Amino acid sequence: MAAQSAGSGTLESIDHPPAVSPPWPRPAYSWYVVGVLLLAYTLSFIDRMILSLLVAPIRAALDISDTQVSLLIGLAFALFYTLLGLPLAWIADRYNRRNLILVGIVVWSFMTAGCGFAGSYATLFAARMGVGVGEATLSPAAYSMLSDYFPRDKLARAMAVYSIGVPLGAGIALILGSFVVQAVLTAPMIEVPFFGAMDAWRLIFVWVAAPGLLIALLMFTVREPLRRGRRAVAPVANASTTPAPGLLAHLREQRVALGALFAGMSLIGLVMYGAIAWIPTFFARTYGMGVGEAGLWFGIIMAIGGTIGLLAGGALADRLYAKGVADAHLRVMRLSILLGGPPLIAAALMPDSTLAFVMLAIAYPCMTMHGVGGVALQLITPNEYRARMTALYFFVVNLIGLGFGPMLIALLTDYLFEDDAMLRYSIATVAGIALPAAAAILTWGFKGFSRDLARMSAEAESAPA
């Protein structure tokens, strides 16, 4: 059958698969790879969020409307990030994943810097598209690589550490934003060697892009791992293992488990993306707090609480899985809702800002335990499709969560409650409906997931390394 070589993107023929799988990479080196990918993921979130912190100076410089800014923040990035993630994941499933990520880091870093030199709305829009294209290379390839660096009973912890890049990057961006706004207001122009006077907001794009080139150099120290358990995508004469089904056949075959994962995570994302978008404004409208101050405290909660939650969720999922709980990862996702949902809803209804922040500090570590969903997806996906399934997963979750979460809360405020001061009830309503629905859907998927995992485990044991 055909198997991918460890160090290149070429396919080599293996007529006699080895009886014993080769050893896993040294744990110290595997965790080093996780660290490098975490740095890349953290930077990617800072680069994608930084524009939303500079709305006022960009509007003034380019003479554009709120609607045009919203397109830069959302559509220009998200559309290309999600759509191009699918063909880029096809490349990741066939060729060198390390090299794909390296190129992506360079592309999104240059495009982030390019945002600072954009002279018109059209060029800024194009630069944001480029940021989305570059970042689309990262997670599908990273998930696939980590699945080949860590055995199944340790994979959740590894991916949890990698996923810390989400709350850490978002938290850093919010914290940075509280100081950036003041800096831009106090020093609107900065003298730069060789370029002369530049708007401060333009230089900020260059500053946040620069570390990307250092991380790209670090990627050269990461080796492309051996693809384990790779099966033929079509029947091969004298093959000793079951060939992998076509991707569409795989989707049909595992429709219950995948449906629970995709729908459950999408509903969780609906709440989490909506909260990230509106909580600073909620504190301003409800308690009269400055948006910058609210963003600072919320950013700290996201960075610290998100890190704690992801690590706890990964450790718990690995422990349950090692004890033979087949649906451990879905159970941890449901637990995150049961523990984090009530304080998240309560935060929107608290009588003062201090209690609201306390509720958020309790909710966020619990809610971010759901990050093990990506691990569950890897466990029931053949090696041949891991990157593409991850890209499809991110496409659905981001489209529903990022695309509709913030908008749904806004629609309830504008058209149901018809009062800006009622934003707190919009947040509570969306969370109060979406989270119980997500918990029910995940529970429905337990049996299907366990069944598909058992079949995949049996096939993996019989497949060559």
TrEMBL record:
Q: Where are the transmembrane segments?
A: 31-51, 71-92, 99-119, 158-180, 200-222, 256-276, 296-320, 332-350, 356-380, 392-413, 425-446
User: Annotated Gene Ontology MF terms?
Assistant: transmembrane transporter activity
Where in the cell does this protein reside? Membrane
| Membrane topology type | Multi-pass membrane protein
Single GO cellular component annotation? membrane
Keyword annotations for this protein, in alphabetical order, are: Membrane, Transmembrane, Transmembrane helix, Transport
Q: Gene3D superfamilies of this UniProt entry?
A: MFS general substrate transporter like domains (1.20.1250.20)
The Major facilitator superfamily (MFS) profile domain is annotated at 33-451
Under InterPro entries, the record lists: MFS, MFS_dom, MFS_spinster-like, MFS_trans_sf
The name this protein carries in UniProt is MFS transporter
Q: Which organism is it from?
A: Sphingopyxis witflariensis
